[in-house]
Amino acid sequence: MRARTRQRTLRIGAAVALSAALSGCAEGQAAEPSPTASGPHPVTGVPTMLGVGSLVLPIEPYLFTDRQVARLFRARAVLTASCMKRFGHRWPVPTGTAPDTGTLNPANTAHR
């Protein structure tokens, strides 16, 4: 009796699985559009970018300016000179002032 019940259960399960698979593959009808839908959105003009010079990347406010980079290089040279002096060597330290040009395209957007 158990074998018969089990066989019947397997047949019913196979029939349910087959019908589910077939209903998923069946070609359905398109849903009727709702009366409030106005159809597809109209296509408008696509803006064109003329150059990359106008791009502003989100990281740009965090990049160093030319003056800050020059100060970092000078600080590194001063530290290197003091270290080299302890071992009896000379290291040149720049004496000029850092240019105050701001940042000239810090993200290098022209090469992107």
Structural notes for this entry:
- By secondary structure, the protein is mostly helical.
- The chain contains two helices and no strands.
- The radius of gyration is 37 Å and the shape is elongated.
- It starts with a helix and ends in a 26-residue tail after the last helix.
Cα Rg: 37 Å
Continuous helix count: 2
Instruction: Describe the oligomeric state of these chains in a short phrase.
Output: single chain
- Low-confidence stretches are none
Shape: elongated
Number of strands: 0
Task: Give a short overview.
Helix content is 40%, strand content 0%. The chain has two helices and no strands.
Question: How does the SSE layout of this entry go?
Answer:
Blueprint: H1 2-25, H2 66-86
Describe this protein with a few key phrases.
single chain, 112 residues, mainly alpha
